[in-house]
Amino acid sequence: MTEFISSPANKLIKEIASLKHKKYRDNLGMFVAEGVRLVEECAAARWPVDVCIYTEAAAAHKRAQAVIDRLIAANCRMVVVPEDIYHRLSDTEQPQGLMAVLKKRKVSIEQMVAKEGKPPLIVVLDGIQDPGNAGTIIRTADAVGCTGVVALKGSADIYAGKTVRATMGSLFHLPVAEGLTSEELVAVLAKAGISILATCLQNSAVYYQADLKKPVAIVLGNEGQGVSRELMEAAEVRLNIPLIGQAESLNVAVAAGIVLYEAVRQRVTL
């Protein structure tokens, strides 16, 4: 059954509005996926949807109505709101009138490394703070078939609106563990026999010279400071991407794509 809520003082409306802030996302264990594409992706991935919020104008569009019908069939709680209420909830400049309120999914690094099949290829976000970069790296990791992504403490919140949108739905398809410390990560990887490879300009080898066919975790560091000292010391190999022109560095998401697709090239015969 579809509900209609028109009051900004409604408890549900106030709760969803609070999810713009990390404090409440953490306390409630919820986050928001906004826009037709993202709601389609979470529905396709069978991600647990707590409630779907939409406007009558959005439902007038065939593509939006199709995903609304899919969520109704899945017995999701459906709520129609006026445009002004939706704008209070929206975190985008051009709202599409459709959002899903979702439960966070707990993923452990132990589950990730225990996954059977091809040698693990894990991406580690070490203090990457820009939501766009973090989301784009998750999207790239999904594209190359990574085992998963680990966002260490101090990295961008993977459930923030900007990060979720930057993943373009890959967050719903790829295991992403969050909140680990460097020490916890190193201990789990060592136990699992997974080598740590850190991206670094100094005292490092060119990325395509490294063996990326074996089980590896590729560490990408903070946009300004690079990889942390703890992980740099724990790294078996340090990698660099040659800079031929005058640029001092590459965007970290671009660097991730270059290294990860080299891993694809090396692994293509596996």
Count of the separate structural domains: 2
Q: What's the number of extended β-strand segments?
A: 12
Task: Label the structural class.
Answer: alpha/beta
The sequence of SSEs as H and E is EHHEHEHHEHEHEHEHEHEEEHEH
Q: Nearest-angstrom radius of gyration?
A: 20 Å
Mean pLDDT across all amino acids:
93
Q: Order of strands in the sheet with the most strands? A: 8-7-6-11-9-12-10
Distance between the termini: 50 Å
Number of helices: 12
Instruction: Tell me what the CATH architecture of the largest domain is.
Output: 3-Layer(aba) Sandwich
Give the low-confidence spans.
none
Overall form: elongated
CATH class of the largest domain: Alpha Beta
Main sheet: strands, sense, barrel? 7 strands, parallel
Question: What does this protein structure show overall?
Answer:
By secondary structure, the protein is an alpha/beta fold. Strand 6, helix 8 and strand 7 form a beta-alpha-beta unit. The chain has 2 domains: 2-103, Ribosomal protein L30/S12 (60s Ribosomal Protein L30, Chain: A), CATH 3.30.1330; 109-267, Alpha/beta knot. Helix 8 (131-143) packs parallel to helix 9. It has 12 helices and 12 strands. The model has no long low-confidence stretch (mean pLDDT 93). The strands form 2 sheets. It has a 7-stranded parallel beta sheet with strand order 8-7-6-11-9-12-10, with helices on both faces.
